[in-house]
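> @MW can you paste both from yesterday?
MW: sure, first one:
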Amino acid sequence: MATLDREVAARVVLQQCLNAKLQVKPQDEDSDAEWVEIQRGMVIYICFFKGSSKELISKIVGSLLNVKLSESDSGKHVAITELPGDILIVPQATLGGKSKGRCMQYHSNAGKEQGMELYELFIAQCQKELEAHAQWLESRAVLRYGTYGNRQVLTLDTNGPYTHLLEF
């Protein structure tokens, strides 16, 4: 988690969901739109800032996959790997926005190439960590993710506004 004496390197929003559907490629004249979908689980919105590094990825992944935010059938809060539940990762550059006058500015965000590299590493590290959890693998839970740098359409059903902001 970020402390007051240093800059934020990444911002993450976690949203518990019953199901979610994300458009990863818009329709064009040659093909239909492409979508990824998850069932009960968690949506992770992530934004990398200038100053983010590869070394930070494992800390972020460890925190997100082990935080006890998912509500089990018994009402107990458990990690997503213990639920087990699906995960949808959505790159969200707007999490880096700051209001200036009546406009939003994104000068703090990592550059597009660096952000894409960190996003790809984040997905790979999540997949690796999830595959290390036998209960998550046996449940046939899935990891899906959006396309970095594209505007994406999201449909989300939730059983309550259970949203958390984390900074690293």
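MW: second:
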Amino acid sequence: MFNPISAVGYSAWILKEVVAGTVEVITHIFQPGGYDHPMIVELPLRCVTDVEVTLMASSITITPGTLVVAVGAGDEHRPPALFVHVLFADSEDEALEGLRDMERRLLKVTRGRAPGDIREGTKSGDVR
């Protein structure tokens, strides 16, 4: 169930992330070795619908310093996955933590609750 109040909050949050990412990219331009840790990470998604996957990929790509380079289709054994090029993470875990936070916020908008919500019947660490 779409949550319009969460959508307003998500829009404000993503705008803040775009501004912060822009500042980070500009700052790194002038630092020697500022782009030392680029990487591509695989993000298994909790998003399942085409709309959720598209919104997630768009949110990542609009944020400076990140870009979705491929989408892995899911099946009955594996969830869909995004392959994301990240410029400024010190580790894969750090990159995935930020991306999972973005996904959690997005799913709160599209489903009316965050993944792992008690009403959903899963723990916060569960993939689905």
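> thanks! The mean pLDDT is 86.
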